[in-house]
Amino acid sequence: MYAPWYPLARALLFTLDPETAHHVTLRALAAAHAAGATGLLHPDLADDPVRAMGLTFPNPVGLAAGLDKNAAFVESLAHLGFGSIEVGTVTPRPQPGNPRPRLFRLPQAGALINRLGFNNEGVNALVARLRALRPGAVLGINLGKNADTPIEHASDDYAHALAAVYPHASYVTINISSPNTRDLRALQAANELDALLTRLATERARLSDRHGRRVPVAVKIAPDLADDDIKRIADALVAHGADAVIATNTTVARDPVAGLPNAQQTGGLSGRPLLALSNQVLSTLARHLQGALPLIGVGGISSGADAVEKLRAGASLVQLYTGLIYRGPGLIAECRRAIAQWRKANPMLPLTPTLSPRGGEGEGGRGPG
Q1: Domain ranges, residue 307
Q2: How far is it, in rounded angstroms, from Cα 61 to Cα 252?
Q3: CATH assignment of the domain containing 267
């Protein structure tokens, strides 16, 4: 472990309720960054670039959405050694999310349950912060709908948020899979998904012409889908020109944690118990898509070996979140090393798609400019 101090820090943080600990940790990280000390939290590793979505990721280990909902800590987090930072989920208008308590630890399982409900300061506040940022990593922005927006008008929210963040994003993620916003997962159904993707494709074409830049769009899906639904969603994403699939969001399943304290809490389960389920979705996508879209694997990574399993299942990139809570920043370097070793041992296995629904890769670069 690169950060031998982290078990003590975690023990102290775990004396606080999870949401308070979350905010304390981010503020401490920002203070360390301001003092020029974030470099001490990770080893100096060589870049291990991956090309996906028309972007060059300096390394394949990214931060998943949810940790920095309002883009308030992007620069601090980027200095921990991530190759990409995904902020959000952000909604068009500010909203408080669900009532507290809404975040629960299951330490015996290395897991969390959250029902935060897209609590965020709104897209205008996020964009105001992004205007001044130079994060040094690929920046993804995860978009959702407001809780009080009727599901039949969800595409209005996504289109509004897409237009607002477009000049600042390396890529954008469309979140239709959180279990904590009523009816949101209904957008994964055939007719609803087709209507949403049609609207977003039209909006992106308009924005691309306006800004002279095509921003890649990824879609984040749930782990609680039947194989036929996974394949149908994959086909729809290809047909509508999406650039990647992020698999997966949190699960509403409780079998892996049955009987543990807090297991009965409503919300999405993340952490180690999600690993096998999310990997099954990745494998199904990989077999069905045959390289037509890059896959980003997220869910349950608690070790370097877990990250490699995502690549074996078909992912080009991986993202971390809950594993960081239990393992600390040393997990980032561990995953980077494990992936680099695996790639060196398997040089003939591509980590980027060989096919494209548009006949070529998209446009873009390492960061938002």
Answers
A1: 49-345
A2: 25
A3: 3.20.20.70
Amino acid at 327: R
Known catalytic residue at 178: yes
pLDDT at 289: 97
* 239 backbone dihedrals φ, ψ, rounded to 5°: -60, -30
pLDDT of the residue at 328 = 94
DSSP single-letter state for residue 107: G
In the set 84, 155, 170, 178, the catalytic residue is 178
Measured distance CA(107)–CA(111) in Å, rounded: 6
- 3-state SS class at 86: strand
Q: Considering the domain boundaries, does residue 54 fall inside one?
A: yes
- pLDDT, residue 348, reads 62
**Token pair 């399993």 in the structure block, residue:** 309
> Is the CB of residue 112 less than 8 Å from the CB of residue 302?
no
28 domain-assigned: no
Tokens of 52: 């996906």
Question: Residue 63: helix, strand or coil by DSSP?
Answer: strand
The pTM of the whole model exceeds 0.85: yes
Phi/psi of residue 281, nearest 5 degrees:
-65, -45
Range list of H helices, the chain: 6-13, 18-34, 74-78, 123-130, 154-165, 190-211, 227-239, 275-289, 304-313, 322-327, 330-345
Averages of pLDDT over each 10 residues, the chain, 369 residues: 77 96 95 82 84 96 97 93 96 98 98 98 97 82 98 97 97 97 95 97 98 98 97 98 97 96 97 97 97 97 98 97 96 96 80 41 38
Q: Tally the domains of the chain.
A: 1
Q: Is residue 21 part of a domain?
A: no
| 7 found inside a domain | no
d(C-alpha 338, C-alpha 328), whole Å: 16
CA distance 39 to 47: 15
Do you find a cis peptide bond into 250, omega within 30 degrees of 0?
no
Residue tagged 């920043």 (tokens): 329
Q: Say if CB 142 and CB 181 are below 8 A apart.
A: no
In Å, what is the CA distance from 367 to each residue of 51, 80, 134, 214? 13, 16, 8, 13
Ramachandran assignment for 232, one of left (phi > 0), alpha (psi -120 to 50 degrees), beta (any other): alpha
> Which of 116, 142, 86 has its CA nearest to residue 319?
86
